[in-house]
Amino acid sequence: MKIINIASSDNFEDIIEAVKESEAGEIVLVVPRSNRVFKSKNRVGQLKDHFEKVGKRVSIMSSGADAVENAKLVGFQIITGKGAVPRAKKLNRDEEISALYSEKSPTWEEPEIHAPSVVKSVPAATRTAGSKKFIVIFLAAAVLSFIFTVSFAFNQVRIRVVPQKDAFSVNLPIKVSAGITEPDPIYGLVPGQAVQFEKEITRDFASTGEKEIFQKAKGKLTIYNNYGSQPQTLVATTRFQTAEGLVFRIPNTITVPGATGSGENLKPGQIEVEAIADRAGAEYNIGPSELRIPGFLGSPRYQGFYAESSGNFSGGFIGKAKVATKEDIEKAEASVREELSNEIKNHLSGLTSLKIITEAFEIETEISPDSGKANDIGTEFKFVIKAKVFGITFNEEAVKGLVADYVKDSESKDILQGGLELVYSEPVLDREKQELSLKLAASGYTARPVNKEMIVLDIRGKSGQEVKDYFGSLEEVESANIYFSPFWMRSAPKNTDRIKVQVISE
Q1: pLDDT tier, 121 (very low <50, low <70, confident <90, very high otherwise)
Q2: Cβ contact 314:220 at 8 Å
Q3: Which residue, 411, 429, 445, sits at the end of a domain?
Q4: pLDDT-above-70 percentage for the chain
Q5: Do the beta carbons of residue 269 and residue 254 sit within 8 Å?
Q6: How large is the average pLDDT for residues 347-374?
Q7: Domain total for the chain?
Q8: Rounded-to-integer distance, Cα 49 and Cα 413, Å
Q9: Which domain holds residue 286?
Q10: Are 37 and 46 a contacting pair, CB within 8 Å?
Q11: Pairing of the two strands 380-394 and 239-241
């Protein structure tokens, strides 16, 4: 069984910590009536739930009515002073503790009192007043005896030490490599991870320009040679004419293959080419049609050579129309590039466990040929951009470890990780080697080492003022908070097991 004295100033977390530090499975908490935690039923209930979860059997002893009542309501075992040891019977410390706080207190036989054979007669009123006075004196003595026993049997002190801090700053070259799995503090190497992905953004934009347009229709023609087995050359600008008289020209010289087979098995040679209307206008926006070569008119070739439009001709126009201006294209490109950049950043930010140096990433962008161009006709145009992204990421904890090793080797001090600041600069990416070189500027604080074992030995048995003066003399200590228990005690116990020192930087 472990007895833990709770101070008046102890909060909820202090009580949890005190029980946590004890290795005992059964614990008695001695609670002063002024402790605020035990004045709240809800907080007492939370303590009960926590102790049950961690497997601690905790009982409560207190002179405070609120503390006892709240402890009873939530199911704590209550220890009373009914089994207190009579002062006439001497026990060693362990026996006394067991007698005071065990669930089943020992009982003691009261000494037999023999009355004398002759008793002087005393008035009843006098006897009653004397009895009351005797009871008051007896109870006061009992209370003082209990306080004295608890104070010296269970005296305890807890000290929270804040070590003295020293500022530091270092500049180190580091290299992040995707080819290693463990940090190398000697060469400043940190394990990295290669990241590679692609993004594509496609958006439609409104055309703001207006222009008088004289535009010729364009389309595809399939030209057939049903004349003979010999190939036929057709020079650039050769005309093809519909039955309605609409003329289209081929922009380049071509050769139409000769026919194969003969008779009923004759198969005409054929070739597909681009053709452009001879004039601007919407009437040249024709559907599937058959066309002939007017230059062969009057010869057998006129019937032997013909063409068919394989799809609709389009684009023919005369008049004012909406067109994409140069400014429209530039604004569209800027907008799409910004959106692409945000998409890349969002993708990288999803790698939450890794450190991302955005400037070190290699981004290759390409504008699709399908994107709109200046003077393209239409109320809107499309803009498409693609990006390929490559970079090296790393776990920053590995970098912190390198800094800690460097500082410890050079200054023989431990750094405080909470205040460590890391600034990276001059990134150089080697895609082929999958390495990232960086300049690192690290700054923060180191904590001077504090010898807890020495402190415990030095302050045992000292008064509160002596303990305070002691910590004021330690150069490695910035401040120390001292908590005596029970709260009325103002000296450290001689038993070192009852002195607990916590270094806040740990």
Answers
A1: very low
A2: no
A3: 445
A4: 85
A5: no
A6: 89
A7: 4
A8: 41
A9: 213-318
A10: no
A11: unpaired
At 342, the amino acid letter reads N
What's the DSSP call for residue 489? -
Read off the pLDDT of each residue in 133-138 and give the average, rounded to a whole number: 60
Mean pLDDT of the chain: 84
| CA–CA distance, 145 with 143 (Å, rounded to integer) | 5
286 HSE (CA, 13 A, CB side): 23
Q: Look at residues 501, 491, 499, 502 and name the one whose alpha carbon lies nearest to residue 152.
A: 491
What's the rounded Cα separation, in Å, for the pair 172 and 396? 14
CA dihedral 178, 181, 186, 187 (to 10 degrees): -10
Q: Are residues 366 and 429 in the same domain?
A: no
- Tell me if 34 is assigned to some domain: no
Beta bridge partners of 177: 191, 435
328, 207 contact by CB (below 8 A): yes
Summarised one tens digit per residue, pLDDT across range 405-445 is 888 877 777 788 677 899 999 999 999 999 999 999 999 88
DSSP 8-state code for residue 379:
S
**DSSP H helical segments within 54-123, as ranges?**
65-74, 93-101
Helix axes 41-53, 12-21, angle to 10 degrees: 20
Confidence of residue 128 (pLDDT cuts 50, 70, 90): low
Tokens at 230, concatenated: 């010999």
d(CA 186, CA 436): 17
Bridging pattern class, strands 435-447 and 414-415: antiparallel
Written as six digits, the tokens of 349 are 């930010």
